[in-house]
Design goal:
By secondary structure, the chain is mainly α. The chain has 26 helices and no strands. It folds into 4 domains: 133 residues, HPT domain (Four Helix Bundle (Hemerythrin (Met), subunit A)); 137 residues; 118 residues, Four Helix Bundle (Hemerythrin (Met), subunit A) (Up-down Bundle), CATH 1.20.120; 125 residues, Four Helix Bundle (Hemerythrin (Met), subunit A). The protein is 74% helix and 0% strand.
């Protein structure tokens, strides 16, 4: 939800960041005038408040660090030099790209911002952040497979006392001989399993479960025992003591956030493939929050690239070039006696466009564009005959490249990887398709709306008119749209409904009983709701069609 909400305010944030960059550039040019920097602080503080409300913690942290760094410059505590401004400007460029990623991909990669955050902190001579500080998995996730367990307070406290004594015994073995920890680890591993059985699906069970995962990883050499882990195990003892002291009352309290977060951090780091480790990683989606170094490097490159605003400028220029290619081919095809030499300018134009595609990172599309340029060169120099299949092949390739460029203009650098994995971009993936689909859905809904009144008039009067006779053809148009758009089940249901209307209302000229009239109305409403889902309304299409099909059974 927070990522969806970001899209509502992102235009405003992007504009504020653009003004902030311009103000910083103005200050760099005239460092004696601090007014632009003060304006930067005001804009950034406003953005920070918005991101905090949206609970985008890492993005808010980056904005806060940029704001604090500029305040420190104003206070004269950071030297006004090129390196300082370079870090600030990089932060102001990466921030909108990072927000683009959140809005489009809807998945956070906070650790990708760690180097940038620490560069800003270094300017202020602050202690660097650790990877652990940006590790923020969803701790509210319910642990699977645990059923409610209800022990009386006396039994629970007594059992927890026994388990704590056993736990402390295992902990003592670890501290006494950390270089040969197997015995102590096995002891604690068993205690964690028994604690889970005693507390069932209570929130604190997540701590025992995560601790068991850490123990498994340590036993399988997927982690190395160190001081931070030993420190966490001391804190786990405190959680056991809490339940031992307060009984069932302690089971209703959320587990210590820092403790659970840190335990999961070590599970995420584990290199072993034990069942418990893998299950915890899957349930809490830990690989998303602690990705591989390769994934982090790719994300940092993505955030450092040009933002969507700049991308749109380049894409606009490319689209102008595509229009020139289209115009040249159109004139050539319409000419009575076209000359092959008229196609010669396309060779240079397509090569220039290929170079631009390369700069945008669309390497597959660049290669395809160069292939089309070579084809035109071979045609104009007589090495290849000009035939319609060849021209159609070139036109199809250019359409796919154009579609890829359109996607890039909307999704920016985040679309690059997908476009390179699937170079044969279909028109259905382009922004234009969404616009055309929206228009088609509106027209289909209009046709659907216009069949209601003639049916109502017939029910009221029992008299057929021209509007009623047009109902089947109107519904066939909607059915045709659904078929062309490959929504075959919806098209079939509408066809069956149309058959009923044509037979009963037109051929037999009879008014159906009340239950069938109600079912007919529900069917038409169901089709309209289904059309709404094609326009982006997030409803369950299967439920809609299942309900529509049940109503059709009533019609017989």
């Amino acid at each position: 939800m927070k990522y969806s909400a970001l899209t509502w305010v992102k235009i405003t944030i992007d504009e504020s960041l653009k003004q902030t960059r311009q103000a910083l550039e103005q200050f760099v040019e005239y460092p004696s005038d601090t007014a632009p920097l003060q304006q930067c602080v005001a804009w950034l503080h406003e953005i920070y408040g918005t991101l905090k409300v949206l609970e985008l913690q890492t993005a808010a942290l980056l904005v806060q660090d940029i704001e604090l760094t500029i305040k420190t410059i104003l206070a004269g505590k950071i030297e006004n030099n090129e390196a300082t401004y370079d870090i600030l400007m990089r932060a102001l460029i990466q921030l909108p790209n990072y927000l683009d990623h959140l809005a489009i991909v809807q998945r956070d990669i906070p650790l990708a911002l760690l180097p940038l955050l620490n560069n800003l902190r270094a300017l202020r001579k602050q202690k660097p952040l650790t990877a652990n500080s940006l590790f923020t998995p969803d701790l509210t996730i319910t642990v699977p497979h645990f059923k409610p367990v209800k022990l009386t307070d006396d039994k629970l406290k007594k059992y927890m006392q026994q388990m704590r004594a056993a736990y402390q015994k295992g902990l003592a073995v670890l501290f006494k001989n950390p270089k040969q920890p197997a015995e102590g680890l096995k002891f604690i591993y068993t205690v964690m399993q028994r604690l889970q059985q005693a507390t069932g699906n209570a929130p604190i069970t997540k701590v025992w479960w995560a601790t068991e995962g850490v123990m498994e990883a340590l036993l399988q050499k997927g982690l190395a025992l160190n001081k931070p882990i030993l420190s966490l195990l001391k804190q786990v003892d405190g959680s056991i003591n809490q339940v031992m002291t307060h009984g069932n009352a302690a089971l209703n309290i959320a587990p210590p956030k820092a403790l659970l977060n840190n335990l999961l951090f070590f599970v995420a780091q584990a290199r072993s493939k034990g069942k418990q480790t893998v299950t915890i990683k899957t349930v809490f989606q830990l690989n998303d929050y602690l990705p591989s170094e390769a994934a982090l490097a790719a994300a940092r490159l993505m955030f450092a690239g040009p933002d969507i605003e700049l991308m749109k400028v380049v894409v606009t220029l490319l689209k102008d070039d595509f229009a020139r290619v289209e115009e040249t081919l159109d004139i050539f095809n319409r000419a009575d006696n076209p000359s092959i030499s008229e196609l010669s300018p396309l060779v240079t134009l397509l090569r220039d466009m290929a170079n631009t595609l390369g700069l945008l990172g669309l390497l597959v599309q660049r290669k395809s564009m160069l292939t089309q340029a070579t084809l035109f060169l071979d045609i104009t120099e007589g090495r290849k005959p000009l035939k319609m299949p060849t021209l159609l092949k070139i036109a199809n390739a250019l359409l796919k490249i154009s579609a890829a460029v359109d996607i890039l203009s909307v999704q920016g650098v985040h679309a690059k990887q997908r476009l390179q994995q699937s170079p044969d971009t279909e028109f259905s993936e382009t922004p234009q398709f969404g616009i055309i689909l929206g228009v088609a859905v509106d027209e289909a809904k209009t046709e659907l709306a216009q069949v209601i009144q003639p049916i109502v008039n017939f029910i009221d009067t029992g008299t057929q008119d021209d509007n009623l006779l047009e109902v089947p053809s109107r519904l066939k148009q909607v059915e045709g749209f659904l078929s062309v758009a490959s929504h075959n089940r919806a098209a079939k249901l509408l066809r069956l409904c149309n058959d009923y209307i044509e037979r009963v209302f037109i051929k037999e000229a009879t008014v159906p009983p009340e239950d069938k009239l109600k079912s007919l109305a529900d069917i038409l409403i169901g089709i309209e709701l289904y059309l709404d889902t094609l326009a982006g309304n997030p409803m369950d299409t299967k439920d809609i069609l299942d309900g529509t099909e049940k109503r059709l059974l009533i019609l017989g």
